[in-house]
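Narrative progress, year one. The postdoctoral researcher (J.K.) led the effort to move from monomer predictions toward full complexes, under supervision of the PI. The following entry was the first complex the group processed end to end, covering 305 residues in total.
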Amino acid sequence: MNAAIRAIIRTAVEAGFEAFGVRDGFEGLMDGRFVQLGARDVGGIIQSAGTLLCSARSPEFATDAGQQRALDALARRGLDALVVIGGNGSLAGAHALHSRGFRVVGIASTIDNDVHGADIAVGVDTALNVALEAIDRLRATASSHRRAMLVEVMGRSSGYLALMAGIAGGAEVIVIPEIDTGPDDVAADIRQMYERGKNHAIVVVAEGARSAPVLADRLTNADVGFALRTTTLGHVQRGGTPTVFDRLLGTRLGAAAVDQCKRGASGVLVGQHRGEIVTTPLHEVVTTPRALDPTLLQLARVLAR
Ligand code: F6P
């Protein structure tokens, strides 16, 4: 996110705009927590995780009154365009402000990678690399001790992170919400890996599908061959040092968002699609669920052999 913030501020200043950051997300927007930022204020942040501006979940912003408070604060400060960076909740908020007549451009940033209009959201690559490093380490113990490791990764109701980390990490079993996989299926898969003579089994479990500790409990009495151990990666997946890919993506999207503002566009998401930066109406973004490529799961099964 910091790469995007840096690019927004610097390209906006270059274009002759006055640029402000909004502290603490929609919560801060309603309270008018604006801070004027110049090119120098966003120096030295491209390598930092998280966001310089901080963020907050805001139930109040989902209400009419909350959105009106935000519009009032924007008007009081004399602002005429807003770039919103975040996941589906943030982009729904962006769409609401656009529907009320304010100029808004969105950028998808969520490790869940569940935003329609962006093949890959800002932060996904970094989170994947963090999850992957953890899986690589867990495999070393799993192989040495002939164990099955259940690794729970985040992703809310999306299996994207689990599927990609599972494929890249060479997982034997991947459990995602998009595919119905019960404890008996997992047990049978692990057992099969044992019988094939593997000396470990890595099971990547998306939090939206199951809780890994609960799944492990359900497997206690199943004869899977391996001894089981469980790891929940949780918030460790967030906050990794942004990868090259994420820094470049955030930078490109930040600049593209300012470009859209300059052109007078509103109610659009700027996102990367097939390597190009494209725009998608926010209305479409918030009403279209993002589907996972089912062929990738099939591929993961074949590669687990
Ligand atoms: O939406 C991003 C995400 O990291 C999800 O993958 C996860 O379920 C959730 O946020 C965690 O939210 P919180 O930080 O509020 O616990």
